[in-house]
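Sorry, explain these tokens?

___
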Amino acid sequence: MELLQSTLIALQLLWAGDAALWSAIQISVKVCLLALLIASPPAVLLGFVLASYRFPGRRVLIVAVQTLLALPTVVIGLILYMVLSRQGPLGSMQLLFTQQAMVIGEAVLAFPILAALTLAAVQGADSRVAETARTLGAGSLLTAITVLLEVRFAIIAAMISGFGRVISEVGCVMMVGGNIAGATRNITTAIALETSKGEFVEGIALGIMLIAIALVVNFGLALLQGRGGLR
């Protein structure tokens, strides 16, 4: 009963347009989308290259990507903190505790997911697609585009997975963002803060928005995939 009452109050807060809640939501979505926009092109390119070509160091790169998948996010946050701090190599840019630092952190988190899933998608593609493109006179770039278009839904799914990871991230963004109200406080760091203070209503409201965002994003993927994605 208490949970139901808290949920109803949380919905009322969202409906009323609570400034602190909607600020955290806006920051989360903005930072996540920017991180994906930055990480996707190089990650997809790397995944395609690793799947399509054999070259010295290829296996090392694949292992590195797979290792980054399992690397704890707080470790990534710690490394970025040291790099961006005043004593770090990029300290002069004064990026620590800013949204830009959060974007960098989330882009680093999304990169291995996008690269690994693109690698798997291209490896699983029908080899005749590339062969046909070459037979018809396509160069390397056009062949690559043809193959990537063939596996476009798998790449979109990879982007959704990357989005899911970064929008639910706490440790890394808190370390490099600082959880500053109205500036770097996003959904997950706000949930952690409000829960630690015993303010469960705000935490529930933000949790509802996380679930809603996940539903919207995945429903959008299903629409892009056509009727088959809704089965």
In short: Residues 30 and 103 are 9 Å apart (CA to CA).
